[in-house]
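Re: Re: ligand-bound prediction request (bumping)

Still looking for help on this. To restate: I need the protein modeled with flavin-adenine dinucleotide bound, output as structure tokens. Inputs repeated here so nobody has to scroll up.
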Amino acid sequence: MTQHVSQSVEQHSFEQDSFEQEFDIVIVGGGIVGLSFACELAATDFSVAVVERNELKAISDEPDCRVSAINRFALQHFKRFGETVGSNAWQSILSERACVFDKMFVWDQTGAGQIQFDSVELGVSELGIIIENNVLQHSLLEMVKAADNITYLCPEEISEIDYRQDDSVPENGIESEGQLSTVTLSSGVQLTARLLVGADGANSKVREVVSIQRSQKSYQQQGLVCNVATSEKHQHTAWQCFMPTGPLAFLPLYNGYSSIVWSLDEDSAAEQMALDDEAFKRSLAEASEFKLGEITDVSQRFLFPLMHGHATDYVRPGLALIGDAAHSIHPLAGQGANLGIADAAALADVIRTADQAGRQWFALHTLSKYQRQRKGANQLMEMSMTGFKELFGQKSGLVAEIRNAGLTLVDHLPALKYRIIKQALGI
Ligand SMILES: Cc1cc2nc3c(=O)[nH]c(=O)nc-3n(C[C@H](O)[C@H](O)[C@H](O)COP(=O)(O)OP(=O)(O)OC[C@H]3O[C@@H](n4cnc5c(N)ncnc54)[C@H](O)[C@@H]3O)c2cc1C
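Reply:
Sorry for the wait, this slipped through. Here it is.
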């Protein structure tokens, strides 16, 4: 094992204006992915700091509008985090605010094509859960705070990053101890790290500082999100309708409501936002072909611009990008956070294994293993989402006919159907 920096700073307790503290790993960004990565490192010998600029908003009685479909792979990891740090935060969140879904029903609005996935046919208890992002973050944060080796710094903004690693091949094959990167926070506190992890979202400052390029393209769509009550029960099913204007999802919530993620071109999004609640309820029910009956209640609506982008590299010596900092995709299959959680698991595994073998866990050749494990899988998912979006955006009669026939055909080909769903579930 290589030597680790031990640190005894208590959480949130930097008192001096200017203070330097050494960590093995500094994670910039305490979103779902940054916190998941921190949890992966709980109860290890690594000293870890998480820097997050925004305090989490309190959990309210009404469900929040930003939710995520979380797959089985991620669920298994969250359960293990709780066991590792001896916290029941995850179990209590699961029972109170998560909605298990055991079926998915996908249909093409332009025809008769449809496909259904059922956990029973897969031999599993559920396909995943729908959970508010905010609630999930609270639960992960509780587990982070229960870990002795993790310091959570919030609200703290990064004001400067001094990245000092170089790419040169070690002389005589002997690796150096690696140089420390320094992160200066808005409070004046300086943190040094052997490994700097960018989990700071699509506009990652960490990525920018080391000049890693990112291909970025707008889908020319906005994601309209809100929560609705419906006259028919959601049946613990994730409903997804493909329309030429974009996909519309009804995701089941713990309180019987459904979370709406409706991808619309810019003009249609503006039109839907301009409708009063009654008109919007009618418009949404019609768009969903009344699959859940009438819309009887609707929350405030929000729009999110939809982009996809991919970093050319995920790693540099002593630096790695995870989650949306490395890639972002269309939300149509609810995979963005799941991919980031899988990145976090893979990166943690690579550095833990290298450390246990006495190798340099922050060296480029170690971190490259993480990139090799994750980049292809993430690119494939990104291309599939973009392909789906294009395919279902086609209005041509012939394309629509083939598409509808294809959906129904896949529904009758169990082997292919379950390969697709297993990929989405991360199993
Ligand atoms: C409408 C919509 C629906 C979606 N639905 C799903 C779904 O059902 N399932 C799914 O898996 N994914 C879904 N996604 C994608 C998912 O939300 C994202 O992939 C995921 O939230 C990315 O998490 P992240 O932690 O990588 O980044 P972010 O959530 O962007 O977190 C980055 C964090 O870093 C912090 N930060 C940034 N810069 C700094 C700085 N300089 N200093 C300190 N802190 C900083 C930010 O405050 C933030 O907390 C959806 C996306 C959209 C738009």
